[in-house]
Specification:
There is one protein chain. The protein is α/β, with parallel strands linked by helices. The protein folds into 2 domains: 8-73, Orthogonal Bundle (Chemotaxis Receptor Methyltransferase Cher, domain 1); 84-267, 3-Layer(aba) Sandwich (Rossmann fold). The chain has helices at 8-22, 31-44, 50-59, 63-73, 84-94, 115-128, 130-136, 146-154, 159-162, 167-173, 185-188, 223-235, and strands at 104-108, 137-143, 156-158, 174-177, 180-183, 191-195, 209-213, 237-244, 259-262, 265-267. Strands 6-2-1-7-8-10-9 form a 7-stranded mixed sheet. A 3-stranded antiparallel sheet has the order 3-5-4. Helices cover 44% and strands 18% of the residues. The protein has 12 helices and 10 strands. The chain binds S-adenosylmethionine. The site of S-adenosylmethionine has 23 residues, from loops.
Amino acid sequence: MPAPDLDPNAIAAIVEYVYQRYGIVVPPERKEAFSAELGRIQIGAKLGSMAELASRLRQGGSGGLELQLAEAASVNHTSFCREPDVLSYFEEEVLKKMNPSRTHRIWSAAASSGEEAYTIAMMASQHFGPQVARQVVAILGTDINRSCVDQAAGGYYSAARVSGVPADWRQLYFQSEGHRHRISESLRNMCLFRRLNLKLKPWPFQAQFDVIFCRNVLYYFDVPQQTDLAQRLYRQLKVGGWLFTSVTEGIRDLGTKFVPVRPGIYRKESP
Ligand SMILES: C[S@@+](CC[C@H](N)C(=O)[O-])C[C@H]1O[C@@H](n2cnc3c(N)ncnc32)[C@H](O)[C@@H]1O
């Protein structure tokens, strides 16, 4: 069995590859953990050296290694009902003002394991009722991490994960299955999950969105990548549409046409 080799040049080459391919900057404090993950990938793939892993990735065509690399590079921390102030603005000023006779496309652009998308679905169900909510909102959740996307689609969460959901919502929108809790079918039917690299150009969308949640992912990227992503998000929104970032991720200084509304909340007011 090959031993993991922590050749710094090969690791630096993979860190650069991760930046070019996913836009993710591996920060110094994560380098050690990331290198250990790379070691595991190298051993798992029975590659003789880290340089061989770097070269396989550069050659492309190795989907399995790509998926593992994306998982190693991404930090997937998320939770239900995260950043309640932003969510309550969304509820009062956006969701409750939606026209119930048309479908509004909502994109959770770094969905991780689906908690953000399902939180939006719960809010819509609360306001419109489960039947109407399905016609009023269609939620797409995307992420680069395949395991996260699969978990989101399955809709299973541990008791610890659902502990942040209000008790009445837990009753209404989750079924207990042993130690796990599954999001109800009506909410799963409102959400679709797909693997998507935000750096992919062009994105494979047929239509623009009414609302985009792109929270807690911009900090992965450096300023040129953030600017590029913010401009592309702008183009992907309808005029009058909304962008929600995290309150700690300002895009004001990136020179886009987004109009800042509140910390973490932006509007597209012109084409
Ligand atoms: C910290 S989580 C944020 C989840 C959720 N939006 C929230 O605020 O709770 C960041 C997510 O961004 C994803 N991500 C990082 N780089 C990405 C890229 N280039 N394309 C798509 N997703 C990416 C990670 O896999 C991770 O699941």
